[in-house]
Structure formats: structure tokens, C-alpha cells
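Fold it.
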Amino acid sequence: MKQLILLIFISIITLQAKSIVLNENDKEKIGKHPYKDAVYLRLIKYLKLKEKIKDFSVEKKLNYVNSFYNKILPVNDSLKYNSDDYWATPKEFIIEGKGDCEDYAISKYFTLLESGIPKDKLFLAVVKVKGKTTYHMVLSYLKNKNAMPLILDNLSFRVLPFDKREDLIPKFIFNEKEAFLLKNKKIHKKVNINWGKVDKWENLLKRVYEKNE
């Protein structure tokens, strides 16, 4: 079974892989993973997902990607990486098979980019969930800057317009190009985000695009 999974995985990787490419460190890490068969199956399903949705409508792509990642188990960063707020790359998230809200949103962002959705329509959104004290991250899709965003959230398998998510209090959204404050759950004005001493977003982009992490 293990050998069959590996052979299938290598075949699919050769034909289709774009963003998630396993290096020697990844293969060694998977080899030591207590559930390595499950890791290979997740990677195969990820590649099949990308192939399946490539010609879908935007809304179908959003729903399929949201559903795929929401099947991964949620866990706090403190339990997974011994960090209060670690942002995993999509490859890390799929290999680990568990993560928190940032990991879901980030992986959905990059997968939808690969499916052909333009960067200027996808934004990571920082929100608060009513009744909670901590911040939460979701992915938003904007057809245009005046449109009501559609929300992809690991707390819901339904992709809904932001104004239908009464449990979410918006703060700001950002992508690789720009960032905006939100008002009435729509774009209000452009802002510059002060990430503090460590720009986690810039670091993540370098790890994905330059380091293949």
C-alpha cells in the first residue's frame, strides 16, 4: 500500500505539480511522519482538486477549495509549532494535516491563485468573531472593489457574502499588492499595515516563492 501510494504520488507530481514540490527534506519529514500514508493521500487529493477545478466557475472554485481545506483538523499554533502565531505555508499545512485559521486562509489563497483567480480579487481578512477575544483570519474574494466580499472560513463549509456572516466583525484585508480597512464589511480606504518587528506576511511570501517551503 505504501509503495503504491508513493508511485501514484510521484506520477501525479511529475505531470501536474506547480507550487507544492517536495524536496529531500520534505520527503524525509514525511517518511518520519506517524501518519505518512495519510500525508501522501492528502497530497494526491490536493493535486486532483487542482486538476478538477481548473475549468470551474469562480464560485465553484471557491466552494471546492474551501471544502477541501476545511476537512483538515484545527489546532492551536502553541500545540503544533510551540509558537503563539506561526503562519504555515500550504505545503507545511498539507503535510502536517492540522493548523489554525491563518493556515487555512493562506492555503486557500495560494490554491485559488493557482486555479487562475487573479491576485487583485483575493484578500486575507483579519476579523473578530463575536463573543471571542482573539482575532481570526479568513479568505475573501472580491469580484470588484465595490462588491460585497465572499468569505471562505474554516468555521463554515458555506461560502457566504460578508454581510451574511453576522458573527464576524471586520478589521482589515490584505494581499500581495495592497491593504484596506473595511466599513460595513466593504472596502473603505487603503492603509499600510504595521506588522511590528517581524513582517510575517512578507516572510511567508519569501518562504513560498523563493524557498519552496
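Residues 48 and 90 are 16 Å apart (CA to CA).
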